[in-house]
Amino acid sequence: MDDKKISRRTLLGGVIAAAVVPMKATFAKEIQKGLPLDEEIREDPTKVIGLGPSAVGKRATFEAPIRKFSETSSRTPLQDFYGTITPSDLHYERHHAGVPNIDPNQYELLIHGMVESAMKFTLADLKCFPSVTRLCFLECAGNFRTGKEELTPQDVLGLTSQSEWTGVMLSTLFREVGVSPKATWFLAEGSDAAVMTRSIPMEKAWDDAMIVYAQNGEAMRPEQGYPARLLLPGWEGNMNIKWLRRLEISDAPYMTREETSKYTYPVKDKIRMFSWEMDARSIITYPSYPQKVQRGWIEIRGIAWSGRGVITRVEISTDSGKTWADANLQSPVLSKAHTYFRYLWSWDGSPTEILSRAIDETGYIQPSLKQLTDARGAGGGYHMNPVTAWQIKADGTTWFKPEKA
Amino acid sequence: MLATMVKVSAQQPRNVEKTGTKTPAKYGFGRTATLKEISLLDIDVRPDGKGLPAGQGDALKGKALYLSKCAVCHGNNNTDFSTAKLPAPMLVSDTSAKSRPKAIGNYWPYATTIFDYLRRAMPYNAPGTLTNDEVYSITAYLLHANKIIKQSDILNAETLPKVVMPAKKLFIMDDRKGGPEVK
């Protein structure tokens, strides 16, 4: 009888989850109203014995956050989060020849080139070294989409996510192999079918680069580079080579395809290369399209981050950019990490635009799209981090504001 | 070479573990890699030619290989390539910086990158299957189709690094360091 009950509920849960999918606006009361409630759910939970313990937990059947995916990437549902840890199964993806399936027992990392002794490390070896845990964001250098009003935070900026990473400092491994003091660069290579390679300046290895094998406390997900990846806090996602198989120590960059014909961008009549740090930016995740707000108190919420260090301020404008005021930052504010911000606002019902802009510890102020195009030309491309706006109409509907370069 | 423009100092490692316990010079984990193990994986090629293997190729052989192995995704460069919707990027263009699409002729700063990328990742449906001679030939064909080398030029470990790409002069290093300036 118990079994029957469970399977009936499980099935029901699936049906309801599917019904909730298009109703993404969990904040907006008006949209939530009118959701058809099945009779089974209205059953008084204090009168029925619930499900027992299980091997693996699941989300509530009413919650179904999903990545939006194409053939080459998937985007994190930023509007569904209340904090700054991205659930591992919702971490954004960008890969160039699919996700490889790597046996951790066969895995080895080779470090060679300008070293005293070329060495191979198994996954177990990597785990033997002193370990370090840190939070930081990852972001694709091409993270920005605009062009129409019907865009959610996920559509606009979904190629960023944040995890707690654990692994070994790259400097620890580089001391182990005896990196030559003459070395100035290293090549990192993945074992996917793209055999992805990037050149990285040695300074990053001595600063804060890591080889990580754990994400949010457990073994890293295949999409994030299982069983081990390079982590370069604050630097463009593509350089954080996943499924890492080899590091070659060198005295010159390799000028790989990904650092020459890709991940470079026009600046006036030149092409800028080796843009590593992700510049400060922010996005309001509530209210945002397709949510609907009511007049009265609204807590504006969102995230800000900088690849160059700590976010020192986030400013909010609720009058289409005419005036700005400081948002509250959720502590602890960590370097090179998504920082949650909140701003309490009383909306009087008149149409307006709300905006956020991030300021980091270097004094960098997140620019407008016009400032970026004035500085670089209209070529666009990678490393575009403009301030973005949400339009709130008189009826409370919220829309992305597509701006032209 | 472009790399000389990059100011990178060879810093000495600094001790990042602050556990209070003394950290050893070596932990003794891992094992020495053999030369054979290294050579199996060490497929990268630098602009100065380091890493280029023996072998050679030319544009005529490369064209036949391109048509059978690459054109299905990248298009036949002899036909109209302005309107075709292809599953992979166009590889041929004129060599003016303003032309679109971004292709080898107008956007790639180093010829060695073509060899390196073809050998490691192409063809997309069968990566790592080209012989070194085939990679030299397809590289030669792509350089010739972009009007950078002559059809009769032979590419090998000596000649390929000497090919000067038209786009090289356009590339500049990012010199931004944060701060209030928008660049």
Explain what you see:
The complex is a heterodimer of chains A (405) and B (183). Chain A has 405 residues and is an alpha+beta fold. Chain A has three domains: 2-64, no CATH class; 93-263, Oxidoreductase, molybdopterin-binding domain (Sulfite Oxidase, Chain A, domain 2, Alpha-Beta Complex); 281-400, Sandwich (Immunoglobulin-like), CATH 2.60.40. Chain A has helices at 2-20, 29-32, 39-42, 123-128, 153-157, 170-177, 202-207, 257-260, 369-376, and strands at residues 68-69, 73-75, 93-94, 108-113, 119-122, 132-139, 160-169, 185-190, 197-201, 210-215, 218-219, 229-231, 244-250, 265-267, 270-273, 281-286, 296-305, 311-317, 325-326, 328-329, 339-347, 352-360, 389-392, 398-400. A five-stranded mixed sheet of chain A has the order 5-4-13-8-9. In chain A, strands 6, 7, 10, 11 and 12 form a five-stranded antiparallel sheet that branches. A five-stranded antiparallel sheet of chain A has the order 19-18-22-23-24, with no helix packed on it. Residues 1-26 and 28-35 of chain A have low confidence and may be disordered. Chain B is mainly α. Chain B has a domain at 55-89 and 96-172: Cytochrome Bc1 Complex, Chain D, domain 2 (Orthogonal Bundle). In chain B, strands 2-3 form a two-stranded antiparallel ribbon. In chain B, helix 2 (59-69) packs across helix 6 and helix 5 packs across helix 6. Chain B is globular. The two termini of chain B are 25 Å apart. The interface between A and B is large, with 74 and 62 residues.
